[in-house]
Amino acid sequence: MHQPEPHPYEPYPHEPHPYEPHPYEPYHQAAEPYDAHTAYEPPAAPRDNRRPAVVAVALLLLLVLLPVAVDRFLAAQVEARTAKAFQQGMHTPLPPEVHVHGFPVLTQIAAGRLRDVDITAHDIPADDTTGPLPVSELSLHLEGLTKSDDDRQARARSARATARLTYADISRALGLPVSRGSRPGRLKATVALPLGNSVTATTTVSAAAGNRIAFKDFEVTAGLLSGPAQTVLDQAFDRPLQLRNIPDGLHLRSITTTETGLSARFSGTSVTFRATDTPQNKTTEDTASHLPT
Question: How wide is the angle at C-alpha 158 spanned by C-alphas 84 and 240, nearest 5°?
Fold first, then answer.
C-alpha cells in the first residue's frame, strides 16, 4: 500500500517541532514580555535617625558656650582697662598682669564691683625725692574693687600684697653693699676700709610703722669696727628705710629675707590707687567720693 509523503513543513513524529523548545536545552527559556513603561528604581537610602540628635546637641553646646565666650570677652576688656589704670598709677614700664576671678563677670560689671582681682606688677620705680628704692615685683589680691569712670582711680574693700626688693636696689638705697645673712631675717653689710681692710656686720630687718623697714641688733662678724666703719653703718642703718611706692591703705606686716632680696607682706582695707596727676597728699576718704558705688 502506498504511504503518503510527509508535508515538507511538518516534522517526523520522532523529531521535535522546530519552533518548540528542545527538551534537552535547559538554557533555552521563553522570553518574558517587555514592558516599555517599567523604569529602573534605585534602592532607597537608609533613613538617618541621628541627625535630629546631632542638631539638638549642637544647639545645646551653642547655648552653653556662647554666654561663656561673651563673658570671657567682657572679662578681657575689664582686665585690659584695669591694667592700663594701674600702669598709670604705679608708673610701670609695662601694664601689669590682671586676672578677674568669678563667673559671670557681666553681673559684677553691672554691679560696679569686681569680687576678686589678682594684679602682678613688675619694676615699679622709686620716688627719687624720698629715696631710690624700687619694687621689683608687687603681687596684689584685691577684694571688692571699684573704679572711677575715667579709670584713673580705683579702690579695694580689702587687699593683700607681697612686694619683692632686690639686694642690689637695697644696697643703692643704703649706700653700702648688703646681702642675705647667715641667719633668717638678717642682712649682711660690708664696709670697705683703707689699706684693703673691711668690716662685716649683720643686722636684723623688721617691719616698722608707716611702711618702713627697721634695722637693729648689730653684730660684727669679721674685722675690727673702727670709727669710720661705725660712722658708715650708723648713717645706713640708724633710720628705717621708707617704702613710698606702695598703694595707700596697705600696711607693712612682716619682712623676710630670701636668696634674691627682701619679701615684704602687706594688708589693709579701703586700699586706694591713683593716677599720676592725682594729689598724693589726699587721704583715702578724700578720694573715695570719686568712686562709683
Answer: 85
Distance of CA 139 to the CA centre of its chain: 13
* More confidently predicted of 137 and 91: 137
CA dist 163 and 134 (Å) reads: 10
C-alpha–C-alpha distance, residues 52 and 167, integer Å = 67
Cell digits for 1?
Answer: 500500500
Quick check: 124 and 92 in contact, CB under 8 A?
Answer: yes
Residue 174: HSE in the Cβ half-sphere, 13 Å Cα cutoff: 28
Evaluate whether 87 touches 94 at the Cβ level (below 8 Å): yes
Q: How many whole angstroms separate alpha carbon 293 and alpha carbon 291?
A: 6
Number of C-beta neighbours around residue 232 at 10 A: 20
Distances (CA, A) of 164 to 123, 264, 267, 280: 10, 6, 15, 23
Give the Å distances, CA to CA, from 15 to 10, 20, 27, 264: 10, 11, 20, 125
Position 217 pLDDT exceeds 50: yes
DSSP annotation of 3: P
- Whether residue 46 is preceded by a cis peptide bond, meaning omega within 30 degrees of 0, is no
Q: Which amino acid is it at 95?
A: P
> Which of the 8 DSSP states describes residue 245?
S
Instruction: Note the pLDDT tens digit of each residue in 256-283.
Output: 999 999 999 999 999 988 765 433 333 3
Q: How confident is the model at residue 165 (pLDDT cuts 50, 70, 90)?
A: very high
pLDDT of residue 133: 84
| Among candidate residues 264, 193, 266, the one with its CA nearest the CA of residue 231 | 193
